[in-house]
Design goal:
30% of the residues lie in helices and 21% in strands. The chain is of the alpha+beta class and 440 residues long. The protein is globular and about 80 Å long.
Length: 440
């Protein structure tokens, strides 16, 4: 009778030892903060998360949205860095982290952004908000509208600087989304990477609250925040070898732990992921049946940037094209696709006909189809086929979920075979022609 418990104990011990002997997995990344997320910049893909949609305050990281709208106004020409703004009584009344603006004091937009980014000045953020929208209340409305546009479903802003206020909440995932939006303005890095600067002609020193800019390789920003309700928070951005990352930490119990968690997230991202731009294949001219020319030149679309795990650093490609083109064809018409997948991954079954590839402004019908019809009949017939084409295009788009990366292969000049076709050549269509999870 004693053998059964002994055997069970022995088996349990062996299993425990075997588990300990297994190599640690990347997914076992440990962080102390209650809510974190790691996002890749170019694709928006989440690489790691822990309670990333938990709704909570984010302190001065709120200013990321304030800066988004400020740079948006600068880009639109509504505000200039050299403009001089005047502090209102409301702005001067802000507490917490500030640069002690007095009512009526004037400061340039450039210096106010410095104070907001480097020193996390609440009063400077309010001055910017009031001059962008007229008042802080109207500015907060714009903040919430922008949040909705970015898909920040967990966020409600009540002020522009992040001071604790009932109902002023967001999530780690939403912070990553607005951080990604702010990174669209390269000028922001002139401020986020500045360690020490001065305003008021050198009378007031600004010291950056993000200590990672002095110690982490590839760091580009972005913003810290701390309040009694939010805890210690940070959205840290970095880039190495073309791989951009956003690490968001909310609710850490100390300043040291927030930096440690951000560093661990970034290390995990750079250690486990990479980006690559595959070389496009060289293609032979495409044969044309019944055209004025026997072949037409084709080219592969622009290669996309692909996010890959480090273990899948090599990729393979495969082309799938129409065997023969039938006129009339147009410059930029899709002839086929080339697919990119990590090396060794199974190839999915690709549709025999391209989907979501060629979007003409109108449906070009062969003259032979409409020959003999009156002009009103032709117009009605074209409209009917155009509507049917849009319907089939929508049906086709529903089949593009979880697809590999596709790039279009397009014709470089026209061919013609029907009456009224010119057959003249055209210029190569340039521009981004690829999209992840579907065709262009």
């Amino acid at each position: 009778m004693k053998r059964k418990p002994l055997c069970a104990l022995l088996i349990s011990s062996l299993l425990f030892c075997w588990i300990l002997a297994l190599p640690a997995q990347a997914d076992e990344l440990t962080v102390t903060a209650p809510s974190v997320v790691l996002m890749e910049v170019s694709t928006g893909q989440v690489l790691f998360e822990k309670e990333s949609h938990a709704v909570r305050p984010c302190a001065s990281i709120t200013k990321v949205m304030t800066l988004c709208l400020t740079f948006e106004a600068i880009q639109a020409g509504k505000l200039n860095l050299t403009d001089t703004l005047t502090a209102s009584a409301h702005a001067a009344s802000m507490g917490g982290s500030d640069i002690w603006l007095k009512e009526g004091e004037q400061m340039t937009v450039d210096d106010l952004i410095k104070a907001t980014v480097i020193m996390s000045a609440n009063d400077a953020a309010v001055v910017l908000a009031e001059n962008v929208a007229g008042s802080e209340e109207d500015f907060v409305q714009k903040m919430n509208e922008k949040a909705q546009a970015l898909g920040m479903a967990d966020t409600v802003f009540k002020n522009c600087n992040g001071l604790d206020e009932e109902g002023h909440v967001t999530s780690a995932h939403d912070v990553a989304l607005m951080s990604r939006e702010l990174l669209k303005y390269p000028k922001i890095q002139d401020y986020t990477l500045t360690w020490i600067d001065y305003v008021r002609g050198g009378a007031t020193q600004l010291v950056n609250t993000n200590k990672l800019i002095r110690s982490y390789n590839g760091i580009t920003g972005l913003k810290t925040g701390t309040t009694s309700q939010a805890g210690s928070c940070i959205t840290a951005t970095a880039e190495r070898d073309g791989l951009g990352l956003i690490a968001v930490v909310l609710g850490a119990d100390s300043t040291d732990n927030r930096f440690a968690d951000a560093r661990a997230l970034l290390d995990y991202g750079f250690g486990g992921w990479s980006v690559t731009i595959p070389e496009a294949p060289a293609l032979e001219p495409a044969p044309v049946a019944g055209g004025m020319a026997p072949t037409v030149a084709v080219k592969a679309g622009e290669s996309p940037k692909i996010l890959m795990k480090a273990a899948d650093s090599q990729s393979s490609r495969r082309c799938k094209c129409r065997r023969i083109l039938r006129p009339p064809s147009r410059r930029g018409m899709c002839w086929g696709r080339w697919c990119i997948l990590p090396l060794g991954k199974p190839w999915p079954r690709c549709p025999s006909q391209p989907l979501r590839t060629w979007r003409p402004s109108r449906l070009d019908l062969p003259s032979a189809i409409c020959w003999g019809l009156s002009s009103p009949c032709k117009a009605a017939f074209r409209g009917l086929l155009q509507a049917l084409g849009k319907l089939f295009m929508k049906i086709g788009e529903s089949n593009l979920q979880n697809a590999p990366v596709y790039c279009r292969i397009e014709t470089q000049r026209k061919t013609a075979a029907f009456p009224g076709s010119s057959g003249q050549g055209g210029q190569v269509v340039k521009g981004p022609l690829c999209r992840r999870e579907g065709l262009p």
